[in-house]
Design brief:
By secondary structure, the chain is of the alpha/beta class. The chain contains 6 helices and 9 strands, in the order ββααβαββαβαβββα. The protein has a 7-stranded mixed beta sheet, sandwiched between helices. A two-stranded antiparallel sheet has the order 8-9. α4 packs antiparallel against α6. It is globular, with a radius of gyration of 18 Å. It starts with a strand and ends in a 10-residue tail after the last helix.
């Protein structure tokens, strides 16, 4: 199995598409040595969001690294943010812009298509099926797509990102009332800077599965590593920081409870 699905008992599903850390055995010899550290992973998010199961939310977690295939990109490999630097469906660059592969070892079209079939489609089908189940059971479904990223990456964006970057595709991927409720949660925690629909407005998962007119509501949270880890370790990988993680968890819990307990206008159903 290329993913783990822990079904929930509420309308909320938490997807963490970039927490995977495995690579198939034939891939590492083709990568530059630096790539083996998987530096662009959304580190420790499965640990940070472990409480989601306790509040009745489902969890969907991939096994494999985004260096194999990016589950949050369109399968046809069109750019997510036209006019800006982007990493591909099967990335060939680090977030710094440096090459991932040894010369001549990057995947061709046939290999990319094979990875789509083996890894991308199963995860995305599981996502589609679980949201359909939740909508059938509860009358609507809510998807929280969880991400994290280094605070400063000049190849991808200028300056330092806010701590918390909420994406609703300009308000189109969820009901306006839900977007407003989440923005109010973020505003109530002034120790953490935030923006709604800024540089990260929502990736392909949010854009595809956020269809509020059909009872499917989706949001993405791009959280900076500095919220829960030590980012600068002299070139080494970031490390889990228990104090920072403990401090931000109540905010994350409040966001997820807001998503879990929200009901569309006129809905008389309860979970």
């Amino acid at each position: 199995m290329t993913y783990t699905l822990l079904p929930g008992r509420t309308p909320l599903l938490v997807s963490v598409p970039h927490c995977g850390t495995e690579l198939p055995p034939d891939l590492p010899p083709r990568l530059v040595r630096r790539a083996l550290a998987l530096e662009d992973t959304d580190w420790h998010l499965q640990r940070l969001y472990a409480f989601a199961s306790d509040i009745g939310a489902g969890l969907l977690l991939p096994r494999f690294s985004r260096y194999l295939i990016d589950l949050n990109r369109p399968s046809e490999n069109t750019p997510m943010y036209p006019g800006q630097n982007n990493t591909e469906l099967c990335p060939t660059r680090f977030f710094t812009g440096d090459p991932l592969y040894l010369e001549g070892q990057a995947p061709g079209q046939a290999e990319v298509a094979d990875r789509v079939q083996r890894y991308w489609r199963p995860y995305r089908q599981a996502l589609t099926d679980e949201l359909a189940r939740l909508r059938q059971q509860h009358g609507h479904a809510v998807l929280f797509d969880a991400h994290s990223i280094k605070s400063e990456l000049p190849w991808l964006f200028e300056g330092q990102l806010p701590h918390l970057n909420l994406g609703t595709v300009g308000g189109s991927s969820c009901a306006p009332a839900l977007r407003q409720a989440l923005a109010q949660v973020l505003a109530a925690h002034p120790d953490y800077s935030h923006v709604v629909d800024g540089r990260f407005r929502g990736g392909h998962i949010t854009r595809t599965h956020g269809r509020p007119g059909e009872g499917l509501h989706a949001v993405q949270l791009e959280m900076c590593w500095r919220c829960y880890m030590d980012e600068d370790l002299g070139g080494n990988l970031p490390a889990w920081n228990p104090q920072r993680a403990a401090a931000v968890t109540p905010l994350l819990r409040e966001l997820l409870l807001t998503l879990r307990d929200w009901r569309p206008a006129g809905s008389g159903r309860s979970s």
